[in-house]
Amino acid sequence: MRRTVYNTPVIKQILTAVSWLGLKLAGWKLEGQPPLEKKYVLIAVPHTTNWDFPITLAMAFLFKFDIFWMGKDSLFKGASGPVMRWLGGIPVNRSASSNLVQQTIDAFNANDKLVITIPPEGTRSRVEKWKTGFYYIAYGAKVPIALGFLDYQRKVGGFLPTFYPTGNADKDIAEIRKFYADISGLRADQCHID
Question: In which domain, by residue range, is 60 found?
Answer without folding.
Answer: 5-189
